C-alpha cells in the first residue's frame, strides 16, 4: 500500500519505520531541518538509530506534492495548547486542509493526534470535505487511532502495545485493523471515532489526576512533617494501590490532554471540577518547589541575592531530551524573581533549543563541579544525577548548610539525615 | 501471649481467629447481641463460618473486667464520620479510656482503626496516660497497624496480605513485627506511627479520587452521548491505565477516610481541594442516578406519581450484606420526593437492620416477579441480579417503555440496543 504520514515527529517517525517493512511510505513534515536530518538518518529525539531510519527507503519530504497518489494518509501532527490553555488546532487544521487538497476518491485518512471527543467529526472531516469536494463515507473514509508513544520507554513501543483503532463504519474499521495488526502486538477496535478519541484523552487525564493527588498529599505531609515518600512506599504494599510519585507534570501529553477534554466539557456547559482541580495542583508545583527553596535559604540565613542555586535537569521527563512544556522553567522564573543566581545543568537536552525556546543557558553536567552552591535542586532524575549523595556533599559553599531539594523523591529521608542535608522533598 | 481485642467487628473477628492459633485471645465488644452470636459461632457479616469461629477457644465477652491481665491490647473499633462529615472519635476515645483503665506496666497497645495522621499520638495516647497514670514509652508501648480488611474479597484476606506495622521506637516495632509475622504473609515496618496512619488513609483516598474521576467522566460522556463503559474498556488496553468503573461510593472506608485526612489538613489551614472535589462528585452520584431516572420517565411520558420503580440492591457493595453508609438511600430519597412508587430488592442484607437504620422496607429478590415496573435500577451487582437482560424484559408495565438504569455499567450498550431498553449508564 502507498501510505503518506503527515508529521515526522515523536509519533510519525516510529510509525513510518514500522510501516515501511510492509508498505511504501512517504513521510512529510513542514520542518525542513527535521526532514534534512531524517534523510541523513539523524533523529534529534534519540528515539531511532541511523540504521533503523535508513533501513527501508522511507521517502522523507517537505514537498507537499509528493503526497499525491497515496491511498492511506496518517496524520500525526502535534495538538498543543495555547497560552490560555485552550486547544491549539492550527496544525490539525493545516494537515486536514492539506489532505483535503491532496486526496482522491477511496482514500482513507487516519488521525493519530490526540484531541477532544468529537474533534475529528466536527472539525477535521468538514475541512477535508470542503477542500477535496468529496463526501465522507462515500468518497473517502476516516478512522482514528490514538498514538501511545511513551518517550524514553523501550518496553511499550509501537510493536509491543495494544493499539486502539476506531471508525464509524465496519468496513473502514476492518481496513484499519488489518493495517495496524501488521505492526502492533494487538489491536483493539471501537465502533466509533468518538470512543477512540475519548479513550486516549482520559488515559492521560487519569495519570494527571493521580499525580495531582500525590502532589496534594505531598504538600499536606510537608505541613505535618511526615516524609511523603515513606508514606507512599508503605501504601504501595497494598495490593490495589497505584504507586505515583509527586513532582512536576510537563510535556506535551499529561499536562495538555486534560485541557482538551475540559474544553469540550465546557462547550457542553459541564465544568469538570476534579480534572481542573488536578491541573491547578500540578501547575502549581514549580512555584511550590521554588518557594520551598527560598524558605530553606532564609531559614538558614543565606542572603538570597548572593545565593547560588544549581538546578539539575531541564527536560520534562527523566532521560529524554524533550523540553516542550517543561515545568523547570517555573522553578527558574520564580527563583529569578528573588535575584538568586541560578545555573541549570542538563547534558541530554539541546542547549540550542533551550536558548531558542526559553532564552536561557543550560550547562553540561560535567561543569557542575566547577562551582559551589547554597542549594541544589534535583529536578529531573536523569541517570547521571542519581549518584551517591556524597557526590553533592562536596560542592556546597557552607558545609553546615547544604540545602538539597529532591523534587522527584529519589532518596529516603533516613539517608539524608545521615548526610546532614537541609533537605526537602515534595 | 495473652491478647485482648477491643471491637469484634469486620476487623476484630478475623484478627481474633488468626491470632487464636498461637495465642490466648479475649475478644471484647460492647454489643451484647454480637457477642452472643459469636459465642454460638454465628457471624452476621458472613465473613467467617461457625467452625472457624469456634475452632480455637476465643473468649468472646462484653464484660470489661475480662480484659484485665492481658499483655497486648489491639483496638479495632469503628471510626465513622458525623453527619457533618467530621471524624467521630467517640468509639476510639471510649476504647482508649477502657484500655487506660485496664492496662498494667509493660503493656503494648496496638491501634488498627483507620484515622488521621497524628491521631494516635495526639488523641489516643494522652487518654491512655491519663486513665492509667502510666507513661508512654516508659510504662507502656503503642504501635499502629492499619487494617486492610476488604469485605467480600476471599483473596486478599489477613493471611494473604502485607500488613503495615508502625511504632516510634525500634523495640516496640520489633515486637509488632513478630506478632503480625505469625499471621500475615508479610509485614512492612514504618519507623513512626504517623507514617503508618498516613499510608492507610491515603489508600482509600486514592481509590475515592479514581472513582470520582470516572464518575466525572461518566457525567460528561452522558452529555456527549458517548458510552462511558466502552471508553473505559478501550482505555484499559493501555499498559498503565487503571480500570475503575463509575458508581456509588458508600461504606465505612472509601467514603469516610478522605474526610479524616481532610479534617487534619484543615486543622493545619491546608485545603485539600482535589480530595474534597472528589468527595463532592462521589456524594452527588445517588442524586444523579435518581435525576436520570426521572428524566427518562418524563421523556417517555410516564406519570411520576403512578410510576413504579424497582431498585435492585441495597448494600454498599456487591455480594456483601453491609449497609453502613449505603448510597442507595440517596437514590431512594430523591425518587420519593417525586412521589414515585419504589420497591427495593436485596436478598443479602438483613431486612431488620435496614428497617432499624433507615426505616424502610427491603424485599427479597424472589418477590421481584410479583410486580410490573416502569423503571428498573440495577444499583448493586449482586450475583443473582446479573442474569440475562431478557429476564427483566418481562416485568415492565409497557413493553415499549422499558427503562433500565445500569448504575454499575454491567452491560455493553450493544446488547441493550438489541433488547430495546430505554437505557442509562453513568
Shape of chain A: elongated
The appropriate CATH architecture of the largest domain in chain A is 3-Layer(aba) Sandwich
Number of domains of chain A: 2
Main sheet specs of chain A:
8 strands, mixed
SSE succession of chain A: EHEHHEEHEHEEHEHHHHEHEHEEHEHE
What is the CATH topology classification name of the largest domain in chain A?
Answer: Rossmann fold
Low-pLDDT regions of chain A: none
**Biggest interface pair, counts:** A-B, 60 and 60 residues
Taking strands numbered 1, 2, ... along the chain, how are they ordered across the largest sheet of chain A?
Answer: 3-2-1-4-5-6-7-8
According to CATH, the homologous superfamily of the largest domain in chain A is NAD(P)-binding Rossmann-like Domain
Average residue-wise pLDDT of chain A? 95
CATH top level class name of the largest domain in chain A = Alpha Beta
Question: How would you summarize the topology of this molecule?
Answer:
2 copies of one chain form a homodimer.
Chain A: E1 2-6, H1 12-19, E2 24-28, H2 32-39, H3 50-55, E3 59-61, E4 72-75, H4 90-102, E5 108-111, H5 119-132, E6 141-144, E7 162-167, H6 170-181, E8 186-190, H7 193-224, H8 228-235, H9 257-267, H10 273-299, E9 308-312, H11 328-337, E10 341-345, H12 351-358, E11 362-363, E12 375-378, H13 389-393, E13 403-406, H14 413-419, E14 422-425
Helix pairs in contact in A: 4-5, 7-9, 7-10, 10-11
